[in-house]
Amino acid sequence: MTNSTFKENNALFWHKIFYRTVVVSVDENNNPTKTIEKKRSKALLWFLLVAVIFALSCCFINQPKTIRLDQIQVIFGQMFSPSIWSLKTYDQYWAYLFNTAIPAIWDTIEMVLIGTTLGTIFAFPLMLIASSNIVVHEYIYQPIRFFVDFIRTIPTYVLAILCTVFFGLGETAGTWAIAIFTLGIMFKLMYEYIDTCDMNPFEASISTGASRLKAFCVALYPQVKPMFFSNFLYTFEINIRASVILGFVGAGGIGQMLSNAMNAQQYDKVGAILIPLFVLVVCLQLLSGYLRRKSL
Amino acid sequence: MKKEKNRVSETDRLEREEKHKNSKLNKLLTKLHLRGYDTYLNAEDAYKKRPMLWIYDLVIALIFVGVVLYFALDINFMSTVTYNGTRLGELWKGFINPNWDYFFGINTFRFSESVIYKIIETFAIAFIGTTLSSLFSIPFGFFASRKIVGKYSIISEFILIVIRTFPEILFGLILVKVVGFGSFAGITVLSIHSIGMIGKMYSEQLDVINDQPLEALDACGASRLSRIKLGVIPQVAPNFLSVILYRFDLNVRTASLLGLVGAGGIGYDIWVNSQFNTWSMLAPLLYGVVVLIILVDIVSGLLRKKLI
């Protein structure tokens, strides 16, 4: 076999892997009269790729020494009833819930509201400049989008750590971390919405001699307003959930209480903090979902 | 006699209406959009008498600002700020001169404690966690879809909400107690916690599928399995995959976070180095996390564009 035929065979082999022949029509003896070549689906290839990455990833995972499944039962069993180690009676449990947990969550709400407001105030001018139908120059809106997208990639806890360096340990650092985090989310959600707004009223008011700001107030602001509020609430809800993390790096919030209670194995305290948090988050989710559905 | 007394003449009625229209209260109510418009023939007139809707925005904004200011006083906002020039200078120095030996794991550092190893570990945790949870959430998604299960879907929906609202870091704390420190705990956290969102998105996608292919298959006499294979899967597969990719984006962030509680990944080193103020060690870790997240963002964005 010469080298050239080998090459041809080789090419044929790869061709057969990626293409298949489909019979279009047959004669009376069921012999194919016309066939075409179709590309095979690449699903198998993608599946193989995922499997290979999965297998390689498994090399980096440590093997657990002991799996103590009874701990799950211990933790969840003690969460919603007082244990003898920390809160002895139901009276103390409810007292802890109402006197310690709810004020702590109220502090978190205050922190998150201030942070979300600050972030929204920063995001407002940026999202106007970054929407491609108000500012038509690509050299202005692309750098701003790139910059805020870069801020958005920094995880929340990293922001919180950096803020604790600048603002000291406590709720101030958490508030600023939430503000920067909100800036990214709010910016992304809003400029994508403004991009799809109806621009005819805007152009009409420009053509009557209005300035761009005035035209925005008259024509775009009524379109943007409901979405703005629902996005604000949505961001607020995300931030409430994210604020649990802040306590773990010393930036205020209920995270510190949670981790202290977990480390001291006082699971009933964890449960007492979790119940009002659950109620709050579920209510906010329902409300923000309702508003988003209404404004879309 | 009484009836005649009460009867009002036409002119009287018009006069009274005119008086009512020009009364101060009515003008105010019209201005505030609490009472309907009159009809104006002339555009200029209508413009002059337009309701002042901005008053509502102003009042809401003022109340909101008051609430925020009160809250700021309540938590002593900006009270812990102290200017510490040398500390910030050290931070800046650390960030412009990061410890590249630590990043690549050369010279005094072993590869297994370098930043690159930690990044790959974080990626591995996120990848395995997402893959497993995308498989686990298929039954949850099917049972939470109103189109397939009917009104009993609310049970699965409730389970999904509970999983979604449970803070992932607390989940990490609990599972570290169960399976011990290390990346295996991270996988378990991610593969359970992601079910909440992926299952919800699955059920949303299943709710909006088109019925017509299913009816056509029914008319051909297709079996239940082939109806799912030919009618449901081709419709939902691209959306499911894009949901998984989106969640993978988020899971990379979560995997890097879970190190804070000792569930593997890069977070533990970030926490330790930030506690001991070793900024030149912290800087390469942060650069690594940001690079990893940007890369995953770009790749998953490209793949999602290809899917839809």
Report on this structure.
The complex is a heterodimer of chains A (296) and B (308). Chain A is mainly alpha-helical and 296 residues long. Chain A has two domains: 3-58, no CATH class; 85-295, Orthogonal Bundle (MetI-like fold), CATH 1.10.3720.10. Helix content of chain A is 73%, strand content 5%. Chain A contains eleven helices and two strands. Chain A has a two-stranded antiparallel ribbon. In chain A, helix 3 crosses helix 11, helix 4 (90-130) runs parallel beside helix 11 and helix 7 crosses helix 9 (212-246). Chain A is flat, with a radius of gyration of 29 Å. The model of chain A has no long low-confidence stretch (mean pLDDT 88). Chain B is mostly helical. Chain B folds into two domains: 8-74; 95-307, MetI-like (MetI-like fold, Orthogonal Bundle). Chain B is built from 16 helices and no strands. Chain B has helices spanning 2-6, 10-21, 24-31, 43-48, 54-74, 85-96, 100-104, 115-143, 146-149, 153-165, 168-179, 183-207, 212-220, 224-258, 267-275, 279-307. In chain B, helix 6 (85-96) crosses helix 16 and helix 14 packs antiparallel against helix 16 (279-307). Chain B is flat and about 105 Å long. The model of chain B has no long low-confidence stretch (mean pLDDT 87). The chains are: A mainly alpha (296), B mainly alpha (308). Chains A and B meet through helix 2, helix 3, helix 4, helix 6 and helix 7 of A and helix 5, helix 6, helix 8, helix 10 and helix 11 of B.
